[in-house]
Amino acid sequence: MLFRSTAFYQSLIARAHGLPGVTDAALIDALPLTDLDAWFVFDAEGHPRSPSQLSMEATSSIVSPEYLSMMEIHLVRGRLLNSLDMTGSSRAILVNQSLASYLWPNQNPIGKHLQSVDVEPSPAVMDMKTAPVVVGVVSNTRHQSLAKGAGWEVYLPLSPNNEKPVMNIVLRSNLNAGEVAGELRRLLSEMNPSIPVTRIRTMDEVVAS
């Protein structure tokens, strides 16, 4: 799906919930098990480093708030993402159990800061006034591969600062894939006829490939 604004994506999710047979709808920038993950290269509160040392990295997913519960990624501590986070004002970020345990063992990770090295004021220096704030810890997943254990993962809200040129819409439905595809194409045509809908697959097909 080609790039559109956060407002467009919010409208799409709301209207997708009204499609015949659809019970859940969410957005993510890269589907699990497709090897298209982005990497979040970061520094973390409580882990100072010198500019010559390597920073840390985790797989990064940009998601609408509905995605985590829809995919049965469970909340371990804190809270999940919400509609306010999509404005970008909260600076919210989620981390998985594996990353939280490594960074802050025997500590409460809620309220800790992570910051992408791309936006640090200078190398290895975090700006706590702009750095994302951990609001929740979620269960580990095998997002990259069924053959590997869980790695470090972060989840960022679909906000104006995090928008991607291509997003994937994930739907749960009691209809077959062909019927859902037809309804989705009809909806997008109503919203904006110039937006293409490509590569419609079931999650079984994604996993099998």
**Number of DSSP strands?**
9
Alpha plus pi helix count: 5
Q: Tell me the structural class.
A: alpha+beta
% residues in beta strands:
15-25%
**Sheet with the most strands: spatial strand order:** 4-7-5-8-3-2-6
How far from one another are the termini?
21 Å
Helix content: 10-25%
Rounded to an integer in angstroms, the radius of gyration calculated over CA atoms is 18 Å
Uncertain runs with pLDDT below 50, 5 residues or more?
Answer: none
Main beta-sheet strand count, sense and barrel state: 7 strands, mixed
Which word captures the global form?
globular
The secondary-structure element order is: HEEEHEEHEEEEHH
Quote the average pLDDT: 92
What's the arrangement of secondary structure elements?
Elements: H1 6-16, E1 22-28, E2 38-44, E3 56-63, H2 66-70, E4 75-78, E5 92-96, H3 97-103, E6 114-116, E7 133-138, E8 153-157, E9 168-173, H4 177-191, H5 203-208
Parallel strand pairs: 3-8, 5-7
Antiparallel strand pairs: 1-9, 2-3, 2-6, 4-7, 5-8
